[in-house]
Amino acid sequence: MTAPGEGSKASAYDRYIDYKRFAIAVAAFLLIAAIPTPRSMVDVAVEYTYGEKYVLDFFTRELFGTPANEAEQWQVYSARALEGLMRQGTLQKEAVLKRDAKQLEGLGAKGPKAFYERYRQLVEGMDEAAFNDLMGRAKELRFSTLTYDTLKPEEKAKVDTAARQLKICVAMIAFVVICFITEAMPLPGVAFCVGLICVFSGMVTRKDAPAWMWTDATWFIMGSLMFAAAFVKTGVDKRICLALFRVLAKPNIRWVTLILVLVMAPAATFISDHALAAMFLPIGIILYSNSLTAQIPKDSELAKMLMITICMAPNIGGFGAPSGGARNVIMINYMEDMFGYSISYGQWVLYGMPFVIIMMPVLWLLLNRRFKPQIKDLTPAMESLKKDIARMGKWNRAQITAVIIFLAMFVGWLTEDNILKDLLGFRLGIGVLALAGAVAYLLFGIVNWRDYQEKVDWGVVWLYAGAMIFGRVLDQSGAAYWLARSLTDLLASIGLTSMYALLASGGFVTAFMTQLMADGPAAAAVGPITLNIAGVVGSGTTMIPFMTLVTAAASSFAYLLIIGTPPNAIVYASGYLEAKDFLRVGIPCLVIAFIVLMLMAAFYWPLLGFPGLQPM
User: Fold this and answer.
1) Range in 153-167, 257-271, 325-339, 586-600 with the lowest mean pLDDT
2) Using CB atoms within 10 A of its CB, is residue 208 exposed (0-12), middle (13-18) or buried (19+)?
3) Are the CB atoms for 541 and 613 separated by under 8 Å?
4) Is the pLDDT at 217 greater than 80, yes or no?
């Protein structure tokens, strides 16, 4: 969303490429791309290229005495279901039978109901010990027995290509991070570079690249910036802002940021952080623009302080409850599938909410320490708002319609994965609903296209589109898995082998990965690795649920880069921020959040324990 009356936007987007900084990014890319491919990358390439094929063939031969390419369709369905479950770490018969047809479909096993019924009959009829042994041997095949040396010559050629692309993907990570930190070129340009690298390297086809960029999350970013533009045009943002802060006798910036943190962080445990950032962005902009005076026509520190507050507050709140983000649900499912341990909503709140409560004052103190605005008293802003609203008079038709459309959209966001899904028979997605709201504003005459064209930061939309293809390639190429495994092995090699040290290493790896990709995919990529470590070292102990919690929490630590999480991208659209501004609060907040998490794992969570498990 375009910031009114501010020059920082122009300095960010009108700036030409800095060839010295860009040369560093290109040099890092070329250097990594040119080095010999490490054996560990080749191993991951083997696993990602032929792991599924060999395991499917293993299952059909063991269960039906026939290779996969000659098996019946329901047999291939059964093998694919077991392969997906094994890959996710679900190895026990009891846990396997808990998965329904829809869950298996999400793992790649698609077929009619009859296939699922025959698959269940097959599993139910097997001896439990024999079934568990079969799954264990399949896991050993994929992760240990299957190596580059065991492949056929034509298979080795395909693996060589996959390993080269994995290495290019790692080189691309270096390029992107350097460009984002140094702002060597306009950031939307970096997003286009990501897409071009993916296509030119052969990692993504020209047909897949646009689809991978324009995901539901990208639609959400676009739709949320559109409805923010409608709020600004109608003046709804001013009414909401005044209602929120009029209780303050003296609206000092310290108290304003405190209210934002106290409202947004707990709300993020139940409401999407995307939605919260989109809702509060117009409020932050109106607070800033109404605070400027003839004496102080510009206060970039104030603008940055408000914007960083709006993105960081929901970022720290998501760990408080399972509903705080997909990452939490992903880790709950992983733990239940791999070990059969379940955690209730209330249990999670007991473990996670204290983290949110501790981090709220920490964030507030960091914000007020790291930013030094000239304007501290926002009383003029409140008075200006009152005058503007007085001139508006009573709520008019456009404002009422804008609020009704937003409320309908907001209810849709809360219910699209449950009530709406049950009513329609399919899931819409928050992005589709956000775009539907944006179209509704057009249909009801609240805005015209010129409003969207001028008030929506389309560069941020493209920036996040690039983030989507970047994260998808990291996941599908095996680069995310390779990075996570390499970091974990490195930490283990320097002596971090105790249970608490491994908890810390799991959290560190996850926190690193979530800077580069969305929190959900980061948890999905790292979760099986961290939980497998927990299962080996701490079988039967609270190490397993504690690692689940640590991984989920650390995946929400996307404090450093714009691409890490939608709230960062949304506030960047204000035009008040540079990429390095996220680091000012992000780095100390990340360090403190990690320390708080580890202290909770060491002292608070052991007091709660976990039903049926021995202490670590």
Assistant:
1) 325-339
2) middle
3) yes
4) no
Q: What is the pLDDT of residues 111-129, one digit of tens each?
A: 999 999 999 999 999 999 9
- Cα distances from 151 to residues 49, 203, 481, in angstroms, run 11, 22, 21
How is residue 188 written in tokens? 């939307």
pTM above 0.85, yes or no: no
Per the CB < 8 A criterion, the answer to whether 178 and 25 are in contact is: yes
pLDDT at site 78: 95
Give the model confidence (pLDDT) of 417-439 as tens digits: 778 888 888 888 878 888 999 99
The continuous run of DSSP H or E covering 171 comes out as helix 153-182
Neighbours of 72 (CB within 10 A): 13
Alpha-carbon distance of 309 to 293, in angstroms, equals 22
How far are the Cα atoms of 61, 96, 118, 546, 600 from residue 603, in angstroms, in the given order?
A: 50, 34, 48, 12, 5
Runs of H (alpha helix) within 290-396: 300-317, 326-339, 345-370, 379-392
Region of residue 343 (phi > 0: left; psi between -120 and 50: alpha; otherwise: beta): beta
d(CA 497, CA 489): 10
3-class secondary structure, 377: strand
Give dist(CA 257, CA 376) in Å, integer: 11
Distance, in Å, from the CA atom of 162 to the CA atom of 155, rounded to the nearest integer, reads: 11
Say whether pLDDT at 11 is over 60.
Answer: no
- 5 falls in which pLDDT band (50, 70, 90)? very low
Query: How far is the C-alpha of 36 from the C-alpha of 160, rounded, in Å?
Result: 12
Entry field: residues in the chain: 616
Counting beta carbons within 10 angstroms of the beta carbon of residue 489, is it exposed (0 to 12), middle (13 to 18) or buried (19 or more)? exposed
What's residue 439's pLDDT? 95
Closest CA to 174 of 34, 309, 38: 34
Beta-bridge mates of residue 614: 541
451 class by beta-carbon count within 10 Å (0-12 exposed, 13-18 middle, 19+ buried): middle
Q: How far apart are the C-alpha atoms of 302 and 483, rounded to whole Å?
A: 38
Residue 398, pLDDT > 70, answer: yes
Distances (CA, A) of 227 to 241, 343, 356: 16, 37, 29
Ramachandran angles phi, psi of 541, nearest 5°: -120, 175
Nearest Cα neighbor of 405 from 432, 452, 443 is: 443
**What whole-number distance in Å separates Cα of residue 272 and Cα of residue 410?**
10
The answer to whether 281 and 310 are in contact (CB under 8 A) is yes
> What's the distance, Cα to Cα, between the start and end of the chain in Å?
49
